[in-house]
Predict the 3D structure of the following.
Amino acid sequence: MEIKTVNLTKVMGSNFSLQPLNLDIQGPGMVGYLGPNGAGKTTTLKLFTNLISPSGGEVFIDGVNVHEDPVSAMKHVSALIEDPEPYNYYSVKEFLLFVGSIKELSKSVAMEQINKYAAMFHIENLNLRIKKLSKGNRRKVMIAAVLMGNSDIILLDEPSDGLDPIESKIFRNMLNELKKTKLILMSSHLMFEVAETCDRIILLNRGRVIASDATSEIIKMMGGDRIGPNELEGAFFKYIGDDS
């Protein structure tokens, strides 16, 4: 399980959205991808999944070039980026069965997983049309879609947006289990979420990496003596302030 970038760049207009990026992220484990708005986090994830093309450089997933052979590269990757919308006229069950078929799950296995995540995230009516769901419930359906199957690599872009506190806690507990056998890369603005789940942090600002280390080391370098949201927030502000 590996995501590797070589001099990866993306130019938007006359400005760098992402400056030459060289990363080697290996799993299993969970990595927090942090930075202020506009730092380039979502752009990076889109490049990782071939949603946009790079201005230069390359991305490799498990040794396969994402932009030369996206089908092979993405075969064992599942991603939730920005705010994707499930198909409005499908029911929840129809949509998730469709996702299961894409992931080559049998109908029985797909239904087993659908029922599991529906119970976990309190999705009460699987026959309800997507268009009738609230924003939070749509988000839960998309999280279930991402978690279905057995992907080795999971990419998450602010995944807890729209979840209530109980569901967020359930989701964090699930991530802590999944990271034992998978590589998870998550962007987030929620310091408690990152502190509770991420083993390592990559800190991005103005399109470039300004820190990359174990979560405990990032906090320790800023004078903290424990891993917690307040300590991580202090480290974040210090790094970003020093880079301004």
Notes: Residues 229-243 form the longest helix (15 residues). The chain has nine helices and eleven strands.
